[in-house]
Amino acid sequence: MSCAVPAAGASALPRGAAAEGGQQEYESLEQENTSLKREIGKLTDEMKHLSEVLKDHEKICPLLHCTMNFVTIPRPDALASCLPR
Questions:
Q1: Can you give the chain as a three-state secondary structure string?
Q2: Domain for residue 7, yes or no?
Q3: Could you tell me which residues come within 8 angstroms of residue 79 by beta carbon, excluding any fewer than 6 positions away?
Q4: Domain range holding 39?
């Protein structure tokens, strides 16, 4: 019995194709990573903006300053008395 040993050139082609495929996948992942970082930046900016809006709202919200908020029994009629008319 003889063992067939592939020639050096025969195995280089699949290796080259695999390397090319790996390079394409790498570039695709890099683009996706850049896109995701951009999206994270936009979402972070939106979160900061909404946090500021919430902070400003909390200063003037009558429901947050109403003494009835400390009552544990839900009373819609009492809560309505906290709202401006």
A1: CCCCCCCHHHHHHHHHHHHHHHHHHHHHHHHHHHHHHHHHHHHHHHHHHHHHHHHHHHHHCHHHHCHHHHCCCCCHHHHHCCCCC
A2: no
A3: 63, 66, 68
A4: 13-80
> How many angstroms separate the CA atoms of 43 and 13, rounded?
45
Burial class (CB within 10 angstroms; exposed 0-12, middle 13-18, buried 19+) of 66: middle
CB–CB of 58/51 below 8 Å?
Answer: no
pTM for this prediction: 0.53
At 15-48, the pLDDT tens digits run 777 788 899 999 999 999 999 999 999 999 999 9
- When divided into structural domains, the chain yields a total of 1
Cα distance between residue 82 and residue 85, in whole Å: 9
